Structure formats: C-alpha cells, structure tokens
Amino acid sequence: MMDMNDIRVGTLVKIDGQPYVCLWSDFMRTAQRKPVRRTKLKNLITGNVLEQTFKHGDKIEEADVTRSKAGYLYSDEQGAHFMDNETYEEVTLPKEMVAEQLKFMKDGTDYALVNFEGKPITCELPKKVELKVVETNDVSRGDTTGNVLKEATLETGAVIKVPAFIKQGEVIRINTETEEYAERATE
C-alpha cells in the first residue's frame, strides 16, 4: 500500500480493481486544512482519464503490472498481433486498446506489452521512434519565412507535420507522446 506522497507522474495504482497510470500530480496545502494530492489518472484498459484527489492518510493500492517484450507482427480487424519473445506465443490485443500506438508501430519491431493480472492490456511505445517519410509535398522557396511546417505521410500511414526541409525517403524521429516531429534520424 502507498500513501498520497508516493504518487508521482508514471506511478501505477489500482482503483476499483482497475489499473491506472498517473499522468499529472499536484500537492496542495492550504491554510488550516490538511494537505491533498490532486491527480489525473489514465485507465490502462479503457483509456479513460479520471481526476482523483487523495487526502492525507488515504491508502492507495499499487497496481501489479508486469512488462514483457514482444515482437509486433501485424494488425487486422481482430486487433494487433504480437509474438512474446520468451514464450513464443502469439498475443492479440483488440484495436481499441492499441489504436493510438498503431500509428507508430512497424512490423517486426519489439515493444513492451503491459500485463495486468496475467493478461496483456496494452502496448508501450518507446519515447521516440524512427520512421521513413513516404510522401510529402515540396515547399516553394518564397514560402520559407519562419518555421514552415508541411504534412508528411509516414511508412505506417500516419500523417504528421514536419519542417519544410524534410524530403520524401528521409528517416525521421517522432516523439510518440506528443505525436510530433522530433529530429532527423542519423544513419
């Protein structure tokens, strides 16, 4: 069991039998009142965000979550298919659970599967991924004042904004948390 002081961004907690990850946490102390910790928690199964306030003395259960490496195989109407690197079993996650992550997932790449009570519930992407630009428009020279962004389609089908100097065929790094261009990938 944890108390409110143990909750930080990234902490995994269990509320009403469901696993949550802390997205935001703020410690508040007001005059003549006991301190509280306000949090935003994301349900790892449904993806819903919950605002929760913990009072001094509240006991919070830590979520029993494990991670295992698995190679991403493919996705279809059933969901995303992975192969566990240790047991070589095929694991399928429903599309609703990994819809956001699929935009940046390449076939044959290893990702971390998050398991809750022995069942996989979601897939974690690294902070940055390298993907190839398969389609983008050229920007005319007169339009390049300031920070000009243009749309680019990546090898996974995702469309993001990139700087004007990025050309088709280049490999770029994308921040998976903000879903934005981070930098050119060095070979």
How many helical stretches? Answer: 1
* Large-scale geometry: flat
CATH fold call of the largest domain = OB fold (Dihydrolipoamide Acetyltransferase, E2P)
Strand order in the largest sheet: 4-3-2-1-5
Annotate the secondary structure layout.
Blueprint: E1 12-15, E2 18-28, E3 36-43, E4 49-55, E5 61-62, E6 65-76, E7 79-84, E8 90-93, H1 95-102, E9 110-116, E10 119-124, E11 128-136, E12 149-154, E13 159-163, E14 171-175, E15 180-184
Antiparallel strand pairs: 1-2, 1-5, 2-3, 3-4, 6-7, 6-9, 7-8, 9-10, 11-12, 11-14, 12-13, 14-15
Can you give a write-up of this model?
This protein has 187 residues and is mainly beta. The chain starts with 11 loop residues before the first strand and ends with a strand. The protein is built from 1 helix and 15 strands, in the order E-E-E-E-E-E-E-E-H-E-E-E-E-E-E-E. A hairpin with a 2-residue loop joins strand 9 and strand 10. The chain folds into 3 domains: 4-62, SH3 type barrels (Roll); 65-124, Beta Barrel (OB fold (Dihydrolipoamide Acetyltransferase, E2P)), CATH 2.40.50.140; 128-184, Nucleic acid-binding proteins (OB fold (Dihydrolipoamide Acetyltransferase, E2P), Beta Barrel), CATH 2.40.50.140. The longest helix has 8 residues, at 95-102. Strands 4-3-2-1-5 form a 5-stranded antiparallel sheet, with no helix packed on it. It has a 5-stranded antiparallel sheet with strand order 8-7-6-9-10. The protein has a 5-stranded antiparallel sheet with strand order 13-12-11-14-15, with no helix packed on it. 4% of the residues lie in helices and 52% in strands. The protein is flat.
